[in-house]
Design a protein that fits this description.
This protein is mostly helical. The protein has one domain. The longest helix is centred in the last third of the chain and has 29 residues.
Length: about 300
């Protein structure tokens, strides 16, 4: 087996591990349904720091400290991106623990189309006819769902927009993904601990008061947050981005199956139309992206 084939196999295995974990992660947070979403978010932030430090020390060795030195402007930008990813995590956990997994699936299916629009608005990227048509179909499906439910699917929209803007902000920074994530976690640590104190003086916290299993599950959110990102970065380094792009639909597909067939969340006509429109849009965008390089190579 050649080195290229080995790298490809490694990339595929890492992509399956990353997106498979992200798809199954609602099961983990369902086990923590008795804990408030804010407390879970605090633990995700705090326990991510030692996991990230250990990973970066192993990966970078003595270069770890020098790589962590960033200009103030970059740190300020990471504070913004950290707030965006924290919003995404909080809404996702709240949705899962409140039986709204289907909306999280819809949000992450919408996300690639949101990225297309953000590229147009902020990066002045040109949209093809297929992309314009796909975004229009997805918008129509989402609008129909809002009309059917009598309210906007705010969970889906917040997840799609927060993660879309997070990617946009991080795209402007010449900072490694794991180094940037460590900075984000450190910048969020102080307000996170402040939120924990606020919870303790108010409704109370579950950590240390519920059971050993709850405590270990909360500690484990650090590994659950970081490990799939390590796998994702491994996949991105060893596979073409178009291939990784196809894998990204794996996670919301798994959460869709969990929501409808495992947790029996209602899949009504509104969701059927919305998902149908978005799936059609994603097929159009994916096919257009896949065939575009071939057209560009033609004389």
């Amino acid at each position: 087996m050649t080195e290229h084939q080995q790298n490809k196999r490694l990339g595929i295995a890492a992509a399956l591990a990353a997106f498979g974990t992200w798809g199954l992660v609602p099961i983990y947070f369902k086990w923590l349904s008795h804990v408030s979403a804010i407390e879970i978010l605090v633990h995700r932030v705090v326990w991510s720091i030692p996991v990230l430090v250990a990973f970066l020390l192993i990966r970078d060795g003595r270069k770890f400290v020098t790589k962590m030195v960033l200009p103030p402007k970059a740190i300020a930008t990471l504070l913004l991106s950290g707030a965006l990813v924290a919003t995404n995590w909080l809404v996702f956990v709240w949705a899962v623990t409140n039986d709204q997994i289907l909306e999280t699936s819809l949000g992450y299916f919408i996300n690639p189309l949101v990225n297309v629009v953000l590229g147009l608005v902020f990066l002045k990227e040109r949209l093809t006819r297929a992309q314009v048509f796909a975004v229009s179909i997805a918008a129509a499906g989402t609008a129909y769902l809002a009309w059917y439910l009598g309210q906007a699917p705010w969970i889906s929209l917040v997840l799609a927009l927060s993660f879309g803007f997070y990617g946009l902000v991080r795209k402007q920074l010449a900072v490694g993904p794991m180094t940037g994530l460590l900075w984000e976690a450190m910048l969020l640590a102080l307000p996170a601990l402040g939120a924990l104190v606020w919870l303790h003086t108010g409704t109370g916290i579950q950590f240390g008061a519920e059971s050993a299993s709850t405590d270990w599950l909360l500690v484990g959110t650090g590994i659950l947050t970081i490990l799939p990102l390590v796998w994702f970065n491994t996949a991105a380094q060893n596979l073409p981005l178009t291939t990784v792009g196809f894998f990204q639909y794996m996670a919301p597909s798994i959460t869709f199956i969990l929501a409808v067939f495992v947790y029996d969340e209602p899949f009504n006509q509104g969701y059927a139309v919305a998902f149908g429109c978005i799936w059609l849009s994603l097929v159009m965008v994916s096919l257009e992206s896949a065939f575009r390089p071939r057209r560009n190579r033609m004389p």
